[in-house]
Write a structure and sequence with these properties.
mainly alpha
Length: about 100
C-alpha cells in the first residue's frame, strides 16, 4: 500500500505529473470550468427551469468527483515530510490549497 500511496502522491501532488495523471489533472480543470459555466448558465431562470434535472445531476456528479479527489489528496499527503506524523493530515486539510 505505501508504494501505491507514493505513486498517487507523485501523480497528484508532483510538480511534473506524467501519463494518466496529466490526463486526470486536465480533466479536473475541465470539470472546474464546466462547473463555473453551469453555475452561470443555471442563473438564467428559463435555462434553469428547462435544464434543472441535468444541472442537478451534473452538480452531484461533480461533488462526487471532487470529494474523491480530496480524499485521495488527504490520503497521499502523508508522503510529504511537511505533512507526516500524527497531525500531518490535519495540517494539510487546513492549508488553503487543500
Amino acid at each position: 500500500m505505501p508504494r501505491t500511496r507514493s505513486r498517487l502522491y507523485q501523480g497528484l501532488e508532483g510538480s511534473h505529473p506524467s501519463g494518466w495523471f496529466r490526463f486526470l489533472n486536465a480533466a479536473l480543470m475541465v470539470l472546474i470550468a464546466a462547473n463555473v459555466a453551469a453555475v452561470i448558465v443555471g442563473s438564467v431562470d428559463s435555462v434553469e427551469r428547462a435544464w434543472h434535472a441535468w444541472l442537478v445531476a451534473f452538480e452531484l456528479f461533480s461533488v462526487a468527483v471532487f470529494t474523491i479527489e480530496y480524499l485521495l489528496r488527504l490520503w497521499v499527503c502523508a508522503e510529504s515530510k511537511a505533512y507526516a506524523g500524527r497531525w500531518g493530515r490535519l495540517r494539510y486539510a487546513l492549508t488553503p490549497m487543500a
